[in-house]
Amino acid sequence: MEKQGKWQYNLLRKKVHRPLSRKTALPLPAERNVASADPLPPRAAWSHDGTDATLEISGDWRRDGPEVEITGDAPAQAPARYQVDSLGSYDSTLPAFLLARFRAVTPSPADSDDAPSFTGLPDNLRGLLELALAVPEESDTRNTPQVSSDLRKLGKISLQLWASVSGLANFTGQSVLSLGRFITGKARFRSSEFWLTLQQCGIDALPIVSLISFLIGLILAFVGNVQLANFGASLFVADLVGIAMVREMGVVMTAIIMSGRTGAAFAAHLGSMKANEEIDALRTFGFDPFDFLVLPRLLALVLMMPVLTIYANIVGILGGMLVGFFVGIEPELYWTETLAAVDLTNASLGVIKSVFFGAAIAISGCMQGMKAGNSSAAVGEATTRAVVASITAVIVLDSGFAAIFTLLDI
Amino acid sequence: MKTAPSAPASTAKIAVRDLSMAYGNFVVMHDLNFEVRDKDIFVIMGGSGCGKSTLLRHLIGLLEPKKGSILYDGEDFTATDPAGRGDFIRRFGVMYQSGALWSSLTLGENIAMPIEESGDIPANTVRDLVSYKLALVGLAGYEDYYPSQISGGMKKRAGIARAMALDPDILFLDEPGAGLDPLSSRRLDDLILRLRDSQGCTIVVVTHELASIFSIANNSVFLDTATRTQGALGNPSELRDHSDNPAVRLFLNRGDTPPSPS
Ligand SMILES: Nc1ncnc2c1ncn2[C@@H]1O[C@H](COP(=O)(O)OP(=O)(O)O)[C@@H](O)[C@H]1O
Ligand SMILES: [Mg+2]
Q1: Which ligand is nearest the CA of B178, by number?
Q2: Most exposed of A111, A266, B61, B220 (fewest Cβ within 10 Å)?
Q3: What is the position in ligand 1's atom list of the atom closest to the CA of B55?
Q4: Does B51 contact ligand 1 (Cβ within 6 A)?
Q5: Cα–Cα distance between A76 and A79 in angstroms, integer?
Q6: What is the 3-state secondary structure (H, E, C) of A267-307?
Q7: For chain A, how far is it from start to end, CA to CA, in angstroms?
Q8: How far apart are CA A192 and CA A65, in angstroms?
Q9: Å from CA of A392 to ligand 1 middle
Q10: CB atoms near residue A185 (< 10 Å)
């Protein structure tokens, strides 16, 4: 109790001296009491005597102390002798410093035949250094800094880009093959997995889809009304909201919600299965992991996306209707106006797109999960990449559709 | 370096010929040559990180060899293209180092799934098979537990039960005893011996636990990290005292200065 009080007192008075290092510090030379004395700066001084070098070490070597001062020229070989008479207290910084000197002069101690000299070092330091030098540094495990020119970097980036494009093409191709096996009745997966996923990316997503689409409808109507009211054409808010929702906003917002929700969930689930060797276990029982894991998710999302999109469209139009009501458009009138503006072609465009978006999200999510690394950090990375990849895919596909529809004049 | 006794290919359950394994350009092991006889308990031993799991993954076809081949009953497994390996793989049971139980399924479902998918099997039979397999490994009544709800030792045993689900011909176990207390580890060894005797399957075990090695293995291969190839082949008790490779004697004597071979 008393001791603890003292420590705290110490901690408050002298911020530099954290009592923590007491526990972890190496056995200290008996003659110096650390807690009482002010630390001296650590010094290392080289002196040369013919070919032999002596390293004089002095001061207090502490992790939280000042940086070491080195004087004299460092020799090309390891020191032959050490001088430690005025060495104070030290923690691991000192052996780490000495080891780095060894590594600097003899890159691979195994190559030099004679054992390094530790003459003059205290026993515990000698023991630690012997331990650290006992196994030669594995030369191929250290990351050697790459000589990197701009050209090399460009080449590397191109190769990575190519690898990710061909990886995506490969995965999409495999999904199509898997779909083919499903249609011919050869694919095996657990139907319960399919129903569960269907629920997760269908009913479970309804609240957030409702909220977002309602607000989007609301916003569109507000912004539209400000402009249209200038021309006394407030009624056309219904046209604006209707067409914008069913062609673009309904499906794109749903796709973005599902990227963040379901695409991420797919990647996290498959990624942790990968890390836990569960996917390998499927393989050794003869289950095709593609049919077993990717196919039910792909099917579920492709089935649910159009349903969610139609739902989002309707909710969005209701949001617009609410704004319309406040600016004096009767809901009945609003509804007839919407029906007149939104024809079947317009309404079906969003729904058609939703099928492709669903496939893109499912494929991105599953792909990132399946190719995740074998650690928990890798699962996190895979999740992030899945969200980024699926949102990008959705937007890119949408631009593609916009171009095609413009060309076809729809 | 010893090479495998040159028995005719047909008598060996598994024959590994000139196998080299690599991740990209990093060669893990090269020129492995050994055979596993029918109904043997064959141990793959060696230090941590020497490539035992990698060898196991080659044996079950999850990784492709850089060079060499693996034969089962004289039939070339590695020359068969991955799609046509179903006949081989159906005869394997594998317990992975991490257990690899499907975490979204209960223990019962974990074992039932391969059984259900193996054919049109009545639900009652499946249920009985599942409880029988769990009872074999001492987990009777744990059908409804999820993998996250049981201890490490139980996961390993459940992993073995799942590996046994389809009555495999060859059982591969990756470090069954690692991370278990001595008693559980011992019980697992007994289980492995009994399974071999009563089920009559060939068992390949990856382990570096000496107690386990001496009590279960008939035959073994030692993977040597220093030379990146196999250091010895034979019965571990004999290798301990008579191997001509000092690294093997050192390993099997737990680093004590080994007596020189007599
Ligand atoms: N997926 C991988 N990619 C690259 N190197 C790997 C991979 N898996 C394992 N290694 C390396 O291969 C070596 C053997 O690993 P492993 O077979 O897991 O060893 P162990 O004998 O402990 O089971 C290790 O050096 C490890 O770093
Ligand atoms: Mg391993």
Answers
A1: 2
A2: A111
A3: 17
A4: yes
A5: 9
A6: HHHHHHHHHCCHHHHHHHCCCCHHHHHHHHHHHHHHHHHHH
A7: 82
A8: 62
A9: 35
A10: 7
* Closest approach of B237 to chain A, Cα-based (Å): 29
Provide the residue ranges of all domains of chain A, joining segments of one domain with +: 43-134, 183-407
| Contact assignment for B90 to A188 by CB distance below 8 Å | no
Contact (CB, 8 A) for B15 and B73: no
CA of B162 relative to ligand 2 center, distance in Å: 19
Strand locations in B77-187, DSSP E?
92-95, 170-174
**In this complex, do B102 and A272 lie within 8 Å of one another by their Cβ atoms?**
no
Among all ligands shown, which has an atom nearest to the Cα of B98? 2
Query: CA angle at residue B152 from B151 to B158, to 5 degrees?
Result: 85
pLDDT tens across A354-373, in order? 999 999 999 999 999 998 88
Rounded mean pLDDT, A77-93: 84
Protein residue with least CA distance to atom 25, ligand 1: B49
Chain B CB within 8 Å of residue A283 CB? yes
Reduced DSSP (H G I as helix, E B as strand, rest coil) percent helix, strand, coil of chain A, to 5: 65, 5, 25
**Pocket of ligand 1 contains residue B50 by CB under 6 Å:** yes
Is the model's pLDDT at A10 over the cut of 50?
A: no
- DSSP annotation of B261 reads P
Output the pLDDT for position B4. 45
CA of B51 to the centre of ligand 2 (A): 7
Give start and end residues of each alpha helix (H) in A231-370. Answer: 237-244, 250-258, 264-275, 278-284, 289, 295-326, 331-341, 344-370
> What's the CA gap between B240 and A121, in Å, rounded?
40
- Give Cα separations from B60 to B38, B52, B99, B118, B170 (angstroms): 17, 13, 16, 19, 10
- Ligand lying nearest the CA atom of residue B225: 1
Q: Which among A296, A311, A221 is positioned nearest to A257, based on CA atoms? A: A311
User: pLDDT digits over A145-185, tens only?
Assistant: 566 788 888 988 999 899 988 988 999 999 999 999 999 98
The yes-or-no verdict on residue A31 having pLDDT over 90 is no
Q: Sort residue A179 into left (φ over 0), alpha (ψ -120 to 50) or beta.
A: alpha
Q: Could you give the dihedral angle defined by the CA atoms of residues B140, B143, B144 and B150, in that order, rounded to the nearest 10 degrees?
A: 60
| Mean of the per-residue pLDDT values of chain B | 86
Q: How far apart are CA A207 and CA B202, in angstroms?
A: 55
Give residues 183 to 212 of A whose Cβ lies within 8 Å of B: 188, 190
Q: Is residue B30 over pLDDT 60?
A: yes
Q: Taking the C-alpha atoms of A16, A21, A22 and A24 in order, what is their torsion angle to the nearest 10 degrees?
A: -170
Architecture of domain B9-91+204-262: 3-Layer(aba) Sandwich (3.40)
Q: How many A×B Cβ pairs under 8 Å? A: 47
User: How close is the nearest chain A Cα to the Cα of B262, in Å?
Assistant: 30
The position carrying tokens 């009767």 is A330
B53 Cβ inside 6 Å of ligand 1: yes
Q: Which of B188, B92, B179, B198 is nearest to B139 (CA)?
A: B188
Q: Look at the pTM and tell me if it is higher than 0.90.
A: no
B41/B27 Cα distance (integer angstroms): 27
Q: Find out whether A303 and A198 touch, Cβ atoms under 8 Å.
A: yes
CA of B174 to the centre of ligand 2 (A): 7
Share of chain A above pLDDT 90, in %: 44
pLDDT at A148: 72
